Known about the structure:
The complex is a heterodimer. The longest helix of chain A has 27 residues, at about 220-245. By secondary structure, chain A is mostly helical. Chain A has helices at about 10-35, 45-70, 75-90, 95-120, 125-145, 175-195, 195-205, 210-215, 220-245, 255-265, 280-295, 300-325. The radius of gyration of chain A is 20 Å and the shape is globular. Chain A contains twelve helices and no strands. In chain B, about 50% of the residues are buried. In chain B, the strands form two sheets. In chain B, strands 2-1-3-4-5-11 form a six-stranded parallel beta sheet, with helices on both faces. In chain B, helix 7 links the parallel strand 6 and strand 7 (about 225). Chain B is elongated, with a radius of gyration of 24 Å. Mean pLDDT of chain B is about 85; it is low at about 1-15 and about 35-60. Chain B has helices spanning about 10-40, 50, 75-95, 110-120, 140-145, 175-190, 205-220, 235-250, 260-275, 290-295, 310-325, 350-355, 360, and strands spanning about 65-70, 95-100, 125-130, 150-155, 170, 195, 225, 255-260, 280-285, 305, 330-335, 340. Helix content of chain B is about 45%, strand content about 15%. By secondary structure, chain B is an alpha/beta fold. In chain B, helix 3 runs parallel beside helix 11 and helix 4 packs parallel to helix 5 (about 140-145). The chains are: A mainly alpha, B alpha/beta.
Amino acid sequence: MSDQSGTIPGAAGKLLHMIGPVLGLVLVIAIFAAIPPHHGITLLQLQTILVHTVGVGIVALGMTVVIAGGGIDLSVGSTVALCGVVAAVVLDRGHGLPAAISAAIFTGVLCGAYNGLLITLLRLPPFIATLGTLGFYRGVAKWIAGSSPVSPDTLYGLDALVLPTPPAEFSWLGVAPSVWLMLILACAVAITIRATVFGRRVLAVGGNETAARYAGISLARVKVQSYILLGGFAGLAGVLQMARLTQGDPTVSAGLELDVIAAVVIGGASLAGGSASIAGTLCGALMMAYLVNRCTLHEWQQFVQQMIVGHIIIAAVAFDLLRRRRG
Amino acid sequence: MNTCASGSTTPSRRLAPGLQTLLAIGAAMVASAGLWGCGKQETPAPDKKATSGPVAQDAPGEKVLKIAVVPKGTTHDFWKSIHAGAIKAQRELGNVEVTFRGPEREDDRQQQVNLVQNLTSSGTSAIVLAPLDETALAGPVRQATAAGIPVVIIDSGLKAQVGKDFVSFIATDNYKGGAMAGEKMVELVGGKGKVLILRYQEGSASTAQREQGFIDAVGKAGGIELVDPKRYAGATRATAQEAAENLLLAGNDYAGIYCPNESSTFGMLLAIRGKGLAGKVKFVGFDASPGLVEALGKGEIDALVVQNPMRMGYLGVMTAARHIRGEKVEELIDTGVVLITKDTMNTPESKELLAPDLESYLGGR
């Protein structure tokens, strides 16, 4: 069942799996373009949609690795909030931007390590372990923040880097620097999955755990590493979320985990593990931000948008299953 | 989901050092959180007895009343003001113990229902409740009243009978507040142009009235094209910011913008700042927080309609205590709304509403 490790024969099936999410995205864009009054897409709209993709997108990159390894992490929304609060508190105390970003990412790594150790040492199902830490990290975030948003006096210009329109000195980038950061990380994760020993092991563990163990792979180590990776990404997403709001809000990103998992699933990953597509995941995240934007543009009410997003998830997975059966 | 096997070594031997690592990380996280948390507690809690007046003498034999204040959420400044008002009442009354506990997110109806039911079964003397939903909380409130626990409703309406299902309704006249915002908007934009409204959340009664009051006032003036795409800001500032950014992409030529509560106003403020519209588009918001007051001073916000949450919390606890003592209480109490602009924001009356001295009541919490 693992495409990336090359166990499925059939080049056509493999190609379809890789470009399926892209086709889906193109289809959604085409459908919306066909609906009168035929809104085109302006640069500013594209910039805004991409900035709205970043939060879900960066976390979804890490989540793709965890899901590929047969795991899941429900605590990411709380981790993002906690890391955002940590960054805001460090800034508020005047320790500067590098310290704030490091502290936030380190907090995310700790959260990921804790998740991974709960899963491997106590042998808890990932769903249960991270359901527990979902509450724990949210509680810690509120505790540190004193239950109200922490507003640092200055963000040292970080807030300008996450606006839809990039600041003048970065206008040559075309889109916000945070969008480029997401794309660079996506390339790095894609290479990690395809070309490193760690990536191969993740896919092997997710594809067939018993076989992976007999092949001499340390399951615990691979799993803990993948949760740490996700935690670090959530920490970074927390910093960016804090920059967007110009404050560390302990209640932010509740329910983010569902958007993230939806993006990964729309992107063609199987929740059973063993397969991953970074390009697909990004398409999934982009598709959701695009939908919200278009529904607003068409002056459709919020419930319409929720009904559509629900069925995009269903359609994406149904399509993927159909392809697998044929392959 | 797959369970993890630990390989060929015996589980117990491998588990022990592993568990130590696990515990060490857990302890480190708690400890580091504690370091940050402790910083918040530098100001010692003021001695309640020392600051309360002569009425505060605990009459021997008289039972201490436990009054539970249940807000809609605990993170917004608005609820902190309510808390401060409740503490003020506690200090004046003396023989009252106020607890303050609410759902952490302002859209978690289920958590608030459970909270009210738990309070009902735990022997609280009275409940002061700001219902998250006018229907969902009606049942639990009737149950509390039936169990002999008086309920005072604050802030938002409840679909139940005042005087029978609950004791008293103490709130802002939200419709009037919305109408004041609407009249100010008409004046600001000179009676013409497009005016955008970002709604707050489906099913929230108080903000729906503020939206309706605004819409009616703007409609009455004529000449203004009201743009109401029925888009909702959602529960947090982050959701409000994204909704606002999307709305400003759909249309850009607004003369004025209105938002009906703190989080939607803050999210919209960030969005118009990002688009370089701050100070150019006329912007009327609702409620106050340090960030919004700063924006009012800078001219990014033209007017804020503010309520008197401290008075609401104060009267909530006072009314509950009076009712328990058998005194007659009013069924409907309006705590008033004021429209504050840059010109009026530095008067003593405005300052008390915009930046109430919460520290003296909540210091150290």
